[in-house]
Design a protein that fits this description.
Layout: H1 3-15, H2 18-25, H3 29-43, E1 48-51, E2 54-57, H4 59-84, E3 91-97, H5 99-116, E4 120-126, E5 140-144, E6 152-160, E7 162-166, E8 180-181, E9 188-189, E10 195-201, E11 210-211, E12 217-225, H6 229-237, E13 243-246, H7 251-256, E14 260-264, E15 270-277, H8 284-296
Parallel strand pairs: 3-4, 3-5, 10-12
Antiparallel strand pairs: 1-2, 5-15, 6-15, 7-13, 7-14, 8-9, 11-12
Helix pairs in contact: 1-2, 1-3, 1-4
Length: 306
């Protein structure tokens, strides 16, 4: 059995066509087509149906892919590990990360990691969609509150939360209100009324409220709708309104007194994870990056520059 032919079949099947597989694997379509044909000849079965509309796996092709994709990935990792050298942290590291985290943190983080491991070159793709690490050939991904996925492993390296902030010129509403009687018990209780406030937002739905941990309830009335949280932060500093933002991107402004915090929203905490595929042979560069991210935020609190 020609393992190169099997690897090329997996490449074509995974990417759904010879053109995409050629670009991903940096091999000619003619070579890929010939090797798949050779594999079909060796097995005596048709693996791929080719037509003007595209490519479709036969039943035999689907069965072969499902049984060999995982083992072939492990073989590829084993070869990569051997090439990199036993325990040597080197090679190219491809990282997928959310756009905002990429803009505010990944430049410094990559520079620090390269100082520790100069044999590594790094490519970061910043976008908010959930990438497929295997299909798109990423080594690691950084994700907020990721869904449980048996194909990925990793660690939570930092936590964030949502806070309501405003410029110092905005007076924070008082939390107390006159006591009112409840219909059921007849007892007096303090129930702060919801406060309507001018808000700077990215998105908001009708009926949204911000219930803060200090007992204050706010009803945001959007006066500015902006397409990024950094724009929201800057407009809030300029006094345009009140905003609900990740604490990580306003901590320095809070420290400098450019913003004041009115409270946090309970139940909106964000766990930030660094993830990689759950193959048994994680490469030294992946292991080193996961360990680096865990050590970078020793108190577990996410802080971003800017």
């Amino acid at each position: 059995m020609d393992l190169n032919a099997l690897a090329d079949f997996n490449l074509v099947a995974t990417h759904g066509g010879f053109g995409r597989a050629s670009r991903a694997g940096r091999r000619s379509k003619a070579t890929l087509s010939r090797r798949v044909a050779d594999l079909e000849e060796q097995l005596g079965v048709r693996l791929i149906e080719r037509s003007a509309k595209g490519l479709e796996l036969t039943e035999a092709g689907q069965a072969l892919l499902s049984r060999t994709e995982g083992p072939m990935n492990e073989v590829a990792d084993a070869f990569a590990s051997a090439v990199e050298g036993a325990g040597q942290v080197r090679g190219q590291l491809r990282v997928a990360a959310p756009l905002l985290f990429s803009q505010l943190a990944m430049g410094r983080l990559c520079a620090e990691f390269r100082t520790l491991h100069p044999g590594v070159t790094i490519e970061v793709v910043g976008e908010d969609r959930v990438v497929n690490l295997v299909d798109e050939r990423f080594d690691v991904a950084i994700r907020p509150n990721p869904r449980m996925d048996s194909t990925l492993v990793g660690r939570c390296f930092a936590k964030d939360r949502l806070v309501v902030v405003a410029a110092p010129s905005f007076a924070m509403p008082a939390t107390g209100r006159p006591a009112s009687r409840t219909a059921t018990s007849g007892k007096s209780s303090v129930k702060p009324a919801a406060m309507d406030i001018p808000a700077v937002v990215t998105t908001t739905r009708e009926g949204d409220v911000w219930e803060l941990d200090g007992g204050l309830t706010l009803v945001p009335r959007p006066v500015l709708r902006l397409s990024s949280m950094l724009m929201v932060r800057d407009a809030t500093i300029a006094g345009a309104g009140v905003a609900l933002l990740p604490q990580s991107i306003v901590w320095s402004q809070l420290t400098r007194g450019e913003l004041v915090q009115w409270g946090a929203v309970p139940g909106k905490e964000v766990d930030l994870w660094v993830l990689h595929t759950s193959r048994r042979l994680a490469s030294p560069k992946v292991k080193a990056f996961v360990e680096f991210m865990g050590a970078r935020y020793p108190d577990g609190v996410l802080t971003l520059a800017g």
